[in-house]
Amino acid sequence: MSLLHTALENKKTAVVLGHMNPDGDCVGSCLAVYNYLKDCFPQVEVTVYLDQPAEKYAYLNGFYEIRTEMPENPEADLCICLDSGDRDRLGDFLGFLDQAGESLCVDHHITNTGYGDKNVVDADASSTCEVLYDLMEEEGISKETAECLYTGIIHDTGVFQYSNTSIKTMEIAGKLMAKGVDFSTIISDSFYRKTYVQKQILGRALLESILFCDGKCIFSVLRKKDMEFYGVTSKDMGGIVEQLRTTDGVECAIFLYEKTPQEFKVSLRSNKQVDVSRVASYFGGGGHVRAAGCTMNGSIHDVVNNLSKQIVKQLGE
Ligand code: AMP
Ligand code: MN
Ligand code: MN
User: Fold this and answer.
1) What is the mean pLDDT of residues 223-238?
2) How far is the CA of 22 from the centre of ligand 2 (A)?
């Protein structure tokens, strides 16, 4: 029996949590567990708590049952934490972790701190959804659960493009296709489709990007006043850092956006050499070897300077 199944034994209530500012793997993994439990453990009352996810994930079954407010008394027999490398990533819903009778963490971040009572962390897996697939019984995976898992995998692999894609990833994706998921629509509508303003800010970020370190690094930033001008939020920033990363000659890409004055969300991506999870961890964040993030304070100049010092160290190694 998998750790997911044993963790659910004799449980009456379960809460499912992900990380703040949830991405496709986060929403996909939370709703995959939600659907799987509804189907296979009907005796367990399951609730998903997340920051409001982007509307583009609304095709996932259970999307409208996601709760976005922390209850006054956060209690559950089991707290399942997904796609979150450390406690703080659980954001507003962290209280559940301490109140719950037991916790299970399923993740794929190399920087995972092992904060659950039980932890299933596979840093070689493309996504939390890939880790979850192994914890589920094949017959128990409905088409709806498969759609959630497939969504998580395509988002964290950039549609099977990034180096975290393995033979196993493709095999699992094949098994999920066999469940009848509409993969063309999922890929097109949840991964590639962007709103007009999202395209506009992408264009602006590329236009204003700056190459440095002999063209090996690139950075771009969106300031709060510009985000307000276009009417965009953190949810609209997906994919920008990837477009920076694929610039000819670039090894490492940095994208920042201003959360509050002098406070920046930092996204880092690399191609072959730089371990950006080390850079992000140094500044209190985390992630993966080729994709990581953190939050930093100071002027744009200081933030980029501090980041580039750490990156240049690795470029010289
Ligand atoms: P992002 O650049 O936000 O797409 O994040 C890239 C990867 O780094 C994702 O796997 C995130 O889960 C992780 N990550 C981003 N921000 C943080 C943070 N502040 N702390 C820990 N991990 C993060
Ligand atoms: Mn994620
Ligand atoms: Mn993930």
Assistant:
1) 95
2) 6
